[in-house]
Amino acid sequence: MGSNTEKQNNKSRCSWADSAPDFPHYHDTEWGFPVADDQRLFEKLCLETFQSGLSWRTILTKRENFRLAFHNFDFNQVALFGDKEVKNLLENKGIVRNKRKILAVINNAKRAQEMVEKEGSLAAFIWRYEPDESTLPPPQTQTTSKESIALSKDLKKLGWQFVGPTTLYAFMQSMGIINDHAENCFLRKEIDQARKTFKRPSKNK
């Protein structure tokens, strides 16, 4: 994602936000706002999995198709997918028909169930990897971090797939565990405020 900003509707946004028609709304209403809902976190992680090697625009334009195909990313339902569902997904022209990624999402749904059972929620586990803000480099100057590397390593140990450090850093940007909006982006202060009032999830079991 670019680190500069561009003007649109008298607002300065991160430069990437004006590079495609679908991006401004996604940037203004979702990207970087802190998330604690497990189903939304699972969706974001799955979409980043499908994005690997592709453009984010490709994924965003197919997002509603993905939601329909994967039961709104309810991991309890996705975990039940078998050969029939995989076959149907591979025939679904509305999504990215990559068998390895599809199987990874199904596998990760099962791992998500295990994590909820052990940790109470996905959010409780993931938010442990929130970095110290004082140690962060300038926004949008890196594609991995020590936290995304650590999260990647720990998820892989737990059997998760397609969770490399770059994929997880993009996930962290999206779900607000860091504020990576450009310094002069109009949303940066709003995200900072949202993060200040956001209640960090904790293990509830």
From TrEMBL:
Residues at which Zn(2+) binds: 14, 27, 181, 185
Classification via InterPro entries: Adenine_glyco (IPR005019), DNA-3mA_glycosylase (IPR052891), DNA_glycosylase (IPR011257)
Gene Ontology MF annotations: DNA-3-methyladenine glycosylase activity; metal ion binding
Keyword Zinc carried by entry: yes
Keywords from the named record: Metal-binding, Zinc
Top-rank taxon, per record: Bacteria
Membrane spanning stretches: none
GO biological process terms on file: base-excision repair
Descriptive protein name: DNA-3-methyladenine glycosylase I
